[in-house]
């Protein structure tokens, strides 16, 4: 199993990149988001990878974080969602957006991905709702490795690996805090996702306060 590739970015395609690893070129399929975050040609690059094996085809799919790779795997467990459809969903929403859409039961956001119809979108939301909270917690500290590899002699040194987005860390921390307080993961995830939508700039404490208000008994 090829779990990670580090090398020099040699080519960018519409939905893939070619990474030169000591003279061997690997074609890696990536999402639009990942492609946009790639460094320039000739610079170092690294991606976590998933190898899809079929009778007549071997394909590598690349991800900047392990949590995104895990989401790709999970999305493919839904009937009718293949590797490219899962990549389209992640490319449209990102792992945080997918988690939020599933937690809120927002099938329309899933349907916004190219090639995803209403039935598939609804199936994704229904089948994965109970699994979204655990992946949201795992997302805490998931660092990006798009530009981690050393540059080849005579080429520019790549930028350091990106740190996790603060929003993702705040969301994961808030969800973890609520589950530690005894709230059911699904309920906590839905409240945190709603709080994050209502207040995009809120930090962990702000998300916790807003989520607790949403979780408070009504009446």
UniProtKB/TrEMBL annotation:
Q: Which Pfam families match?
A: HHH_5, RuvA_C, RuvA_N
GO-annotated cellular components: cytoplasm; Holliday junction helicase complex; Holliday junction resolvase complex
Which SMART domains has this protein been placed in?
HhH1 (SM00278)
Q: Region (Domain III) spans which residues?
A: 164-219
Question: What's a BP term from Gene Ontology annotated to this protein?
Answer: DNA recombination
Is ATP-binding tagged as a keyword?
yes
Q: Name one GO molecular function term.
A: four-way junction DNA binding
Which locations, inside or outside the cell, does it occupy? Cytoplasm
Going by the UniProt record, its keywords in alphabetical order are:
ATP-binding, Cytoplasm, DNA damage, DNA recombination, DNA repair, DNA-binding, Helicase, Hydrolase, Nucleotide-binding
Positions of region (Domain I):
1-64
**Domain remarks in the Swiss-Prot or TrEMBL record:** Has three domains with a flexible linker between the domains II and III and assumes an 'L' shape. Domain III is highly mobile and contacts RuvB.
- Give the record's family classification: Belongs to the RuvA family.
State the protein's purpose.
Answer: The RuvA-RuvB-RuvC complex processes Holliday junction (HJ) DNA during genetic recombination and DNA repair, while the RuvA-RuvB complex plays an important role in the rescue of blocked DNA replication forks via replication fork reversal (RFR). RuvA specifically binds to HJ cruciform DNA, conferring on it an open structure. The RuvB hexamer acts as an ATP-dependent pump, pulling dsDNA into and through the RuvAB complex. HJ branch migration allows RuvC to scan DNA until it finds its consensus sequence, where it cleaves and resolves the cruciform DNA.
The record describes its quaternary structure and partners as: Homotetramer. Forms an RuvA(8)-RuvB(12)-Holliday junction (HJ) complex. HJ DNA is sandwiched between 2 RuvA tetramers; dsDNA enters through RuvA and exits via RuvB. An RuvB hexamer assembles on each DNA strand where it exits the tetramer. Each RuvB hexamer is contacted by two RuvA subunits (via domain III) on 2 adjacent RuvB subunits; this complex drives branch migration. In the full resolvosome a probable DNA-RuvA(4)-RuvB(12)-RuvC(2) complex forms which resolves the HJ.
Q: What is this protein called?
A: Holliday junction branch migration complex subunit RuvA
